[in-house]
């Protein structure tokens, strides 16, 4: 027995020494990484930071990250360093000149941020790089040609009308939280336009699509918490925690939901029983896509693209529409001006639908939407990792391996770029004023090679929904509800929510 205990003691000591040695090696590696980051980015300004927490103590994890970025941008007009904890350094670009430099390249996304996101969204267009990204981008681009998008307008109208019908039964004295109902509407639109499935998710409160929307929100919040807190355990160990189990459960919900859509589509195609429609849905085009050698997308690639568009196609658009509705309620003069434009356009129609040709006849409403996207961009930031040195216009160089962040929200509120950036003014986007400004001052859908492939799909849907709302309802801010504070998750949300009142109009017949 003594021998056994002695051997066990030796084993425990050996394991302890190995673990301690490994920890010391890891710590030394991180210290070297910190010194390297400080050296690599030494030419770029860095706001004062804590030796351990970096810039986190200034508000990154307390819901004050947006305001912190705005304050930094006032002092550092083009770029600045942000440290997440003691070891991870990011270079934030907040000026059109520096933003253009990074967006003009096809550099891959930040592997740490987007690598963790890949567990959710796979290796599709959002995350992939190199030859795979180029091939898949080429295969998917025809799916967003205007001739493909044109028939979707009818479905935008139908899904918007379902939401407005629900609104008509809601008391005009009671405020409603916008993001919940708008998320279901954009998801309904997506399932119809992109996957050819009529889910009826807006009519049935217990539909599994409601569970899907909640899963997206849960995963978004978990991901942001993980990225903002350097000391949380890795995702390997995270799965053993309550937070990790919640993450795994919601991930399963998402993947099962999208996988079932793909299987249903394949089954219908195999049976030859696909319903003949006036449009070709996105999944059909994914299944039919072929490169020059006749090779199509694998099942996994289709799954990845489906997961990405299920997320980007409804959550980001829901954010854009929700904030736009709030801004209409908050600025009644602009609301009336946009409504007059819509009413004038509708007066010659025999129905309430916004049609394809109408999208070019809404200049006031379009300027309003763009100003709302400037003030509240759905995707607050995107990050890249440099595979080659990057030289900015002032001659400063970011070396290979640097993580460069396009801080869209900070760029859109940069007082060195926009006059009185906190003032809501749609006239910024008049033809005359737009010509005076760099096109890279306004990038809600990014720009360059890796811009949002679905931006026209999104803008068309936003225009239709906003036009339909303006024609049928008057919107009001409820002073009893707290002011919505922009909240950075993967998509810009509001804390505690976006609440507005609306009153149905008595339309002249």
TrEMBL record:
CDD domains: CYP4B_4F-like (cd20659). SUPFAM superfamilies: Cytochrome P450. Gene3D superfamilies: Cytochrome P450. Pfam families: p450. It comes from the Eukaryota. Coiled coil: none annotated. Belongs to the cytochrome P450 family. This is Cytochrome P450 4F22-like. It comes from Saccoglossus kowalevskii (Acorn worm).
